[in-house]
Amino acid sequence: MVLTTVVKYKQSIVTDRETLTPNKVLLVLQDVRRVIGELQPAFRSKTLKEVLETIPKKRSEPLVIEGDNLMGVDLSAAQAILDAYREDSEGGCQSCRKLGRNTDAKNATPGWYCKVSDPEKVDATGDLSRVHYAGFSKKVRNHYGTPCENREPKFPKTLVRLVEAA
Ligand SMILES: [Zn+2]
User: Fold this and answer.
1) How far is the CA of 58 from the centre of ligand 1 (A)?
2) Most exposed: 84, 129, 136, 137, by fewest CB within 10 Å?
């Protein structure tokens, strides 16, 4: 079978990373359930956890709905919100409230990454959004994926736990 139609999901929940809340994430998932449910009625009875599991993790992948013809739904607007929530709840120090932002990369002073400093790294040249030195230092890169003991994530619940509790 061939994908005959691709439609684009237009989000009705407008948010960005700064104003994102767990409740908005749940509203987005409910909205996706409603929209997909219009195309495929069986989708309406899915739990939010099932909705989450159905949404492809890769933003370039549409959700494929089988009917008389195969239809793809571009959910990238919703996927971006889910990605932002994951980024601020899971993983390493990138989701920490205390993530250091006061590093002066211009004069290459040692960077702080939560409570992790990397005084060996003195030749930093970049200033990535929110995460200083990510990708520049082995030590800091390690904490990007594995939190230090002082991590306090912005959102304590992972996305999966959030939908399980909903
Ligand atoms: Zn940390």
Assistant:
1) 27
2) 129
Tell me, in angstroms, the distance from the centre of ligand 1 to residue 145's CA.
10
Are 48 and 100 in a shared domain?
no
Claim to verify: residue 56 and residue 101 sit in the same structural domain = no
Instruction: Please say whether the beta carbons of 137 and 118 come within 8 A.
Output: yes
Q: Tell me, yes or no, whether 74 and 105 share the same domain.
A: no
Residue carrying the six token digits 């990397």: 118
CA–centroid distance, 102 to ligand 1, in Å, is: 15
Asked whether 32 and 78 are in contact (CB, 8 A), the reply is yes
Cα separation values, 60 from 15, 16, 33, 54, 131, Å: 20, 19, 19, 14, 25
Task: Find, among 136, 160, 161, 143, the residue nearest to 98 by Cα.
Answer: 143
**44/82 same-domain check:** yes
Find tokens 């987005």 and name the residue: 28
Per cent of the chain over pLDDT 70 is 75
Structural domain total, the chain: 2
pTM for this model (two decimals): 0.78
How many angstroms separate the alpha carbon of residue 114 from the centre of ligand 1? 4
Residues 74 and 102 occupy one common structural domain: no
Q: pLDDT tens digits, residue range 123-144?
A: 444 444 444 444 456 777 777 7
